[in-house]
Amino acid sequence: MLVVGDVVTDVVARHRGPLASGTDTAAVIRTLPGGAGANVACWAAHRGCADVRLLGRVGADSAAWHERELTACGVRPRLVVDPQAPTGTVICLVDAEAAAERTFLTCSGASLRLEPGDWSDALLDGVGRLHLSGYLLFSASGRALVRTALASAQARGVPTSLDPASAGFLAELGAGRFLALVEGVDVLLPSRDESCLLTGSPDGAEAAAELSRRVPLVVAKQGAGGALIARGGAVVAAVPAVPATPRDTTGAGDAFTGAFLASLLRGDGPAAAAAEGCRAGARAVERVGARPPTPGDGTTPAVMNGARPTG
């Protein structure tokens, strides 16, 4: 599987209760590897996909660290080092008293500077699926890359999938524009909020069904409500969530997507693959950070040698 998408540095701040405006709020802060595309790749490898490749763009400030972290997760990274922009950084504010819900402050940096010049048709050699992070659609160069990659995959008969990634950025892009850009994608993996935003329907099931008139297979993540599978304008299956005690919901949707795609590549049907996704999502929310555990790391993701990358 080839994943094309964002690689960023996450600064995760876990606090309790509302932020105290104008003064200090106590928090536990960690710097960890992240990025929706990178997270999906890591979870796909963790859930059994033997060959996961990732195309992303980073700054020179932390390129070596990100490459090491991806390799430790079993991913084969191809990271383009941007000569001008630093690695993207996301500040993740996680309220430990609100079901570990998170709010993001995002500086995309090099991650949204992926461009068609970074693409090569040879990247698809031996690839059984191409997955695109929706964050690519939020920059002109990223949109051009998506068009190039989709055309290449379609010419080779490689199935494609895309995760919209961000309801906030999606609202700025516009539903009509988004749906035009993803035309030809085989599988769409939106969250409930993204599904409703794209269709204008307040009902998650209705939204998933409507989207499946535009995309052959829609797998709509519903958080604690599990996942809905829709085809041909109708919801055909509802997969329950796996109970979990959340510590940090950052990356839960990425974990679902990675496990779902790994299961599809093994030959499982969409319902069985969604069940795998729900299990991975439950595992993800019980950890701090967006990545799966790596061999030898105990219970938490690795930190960059005790230092923090800039950018």
UniProtKB/TrEMBL annotation:
Residues 2-295 form the Carbohydrate kinase PfkB domain. Signal peptide: none annotated. Residues 286-311 are annotated as: Disordered. One of its GO terms (molecular function) is kinase activity. The keyword Zinc-finger does not apply. Gene3D superfamilies: 3.40.1190.20. Keywords: Kinase, Transferase. InterPro entries: Carboh/pur_kinase_PfkB_CS, PfkB_dom, Ribokinase-like. The keyword Kinase applies. PANTHER family: PFKB DOMAIN PROTEIN, SUGAR KINASE. This is Sugar kinase. The lineage of its organism: Bacteria, Bacillati, Actinomycetota, Actinomycetes, Kitasatosporales.
